[in-house]
Amino acid sequence: MRVLSDAFARWALRSSSLLACLLFWHVASSQRLDMGLVTFTYVPTPSAVFDAAWALIESNELLPHLTSSLSRVFLGYLSAAVVGVTLGLAIGRSRWVEDTLLPPLEVLRPIPAVAWIPLAILMFPSSELSMVFITFTGALFPILLNTIHGVEGVDPRLIASARSLGAKRPAILREVILPGASPSIVTGLAIGMGTSWFCLVTAEMISGQFGIGYYTWESYTIQNYANIVVGMLLIGLLGMGSSVLVKRLGALATPWYILREKA
């Protein structure tokens, strides 16, 4: 019973937080609040945004935008997940691989997604592939670094114990390294999902013809401010939902870690 009451209290607090933000938005935009550094003079009200969202739902534009963005995100993200986890395991387990691959990756890591756009357009024959590549680069590094951190954080005594029992490299990787590094890998996958949405929107603003980022940028160019907020909220909801999905799948894949936390 206490567990249910605690869960209800948490959800009530979270709902109250969202409602408070919505109320502030309504008051600030309807009263055209001007606080000097920040002004809400031209910010659309929640009701105007709701009307714009409803108009988008009733139109034939929403589905093409959603399918375009989702396909680009998940194709780039899944590619980054495979490459990031594989490289992370190799770098975390081999000093030679770390000295060979990590320095150029560290040079590439701080480059923002928008800086990759001109080169991606030159490298790939279609704008779709270039946008997928930019999404890939955004998701790669959080996954890669968290995988390396997880592998290096595995207790060396567990590895030594497995070796003393006669375990070979594949068995150690499968039975010791992967279970020990899985929580960090799941964290990197969840962060990578969020950054992949950020990078996709940047790419769609410049190279896309369909997609939520393109819809948001097009709304800005024609000064349709309510539609801008609709696009922003769609990006936030899709990014949050996909990150939650990754975390839930990760929790299912690492039940021993969840049980250890609850103990």
Automatic annotation (TrEMBL):
Topology term for the membrane: Multi-pass membrane protein
Compartments, as annotated in UniProt: Cell membrane
Keyword annotations: Cell membrane, Membrane, Transmembrane, Transmembrane helix, Transport
Chief place of localization: membrane
Superkingdom of source: Bacteria
PANTHER family the UniProt entry points to: ABC TRANSPORTER PERMEASE PROTEIN MJ0413-RELATED (PTHR30151:SF0), ALKANE SULFONATE ABC TRANSPORTER-RELATED, MEMBRANE SUBUNIT (PTHR30151)
Protein name: NitT/TauT family transport system permease protein
Source organism of the structure: Pollutimonas bauzanensis
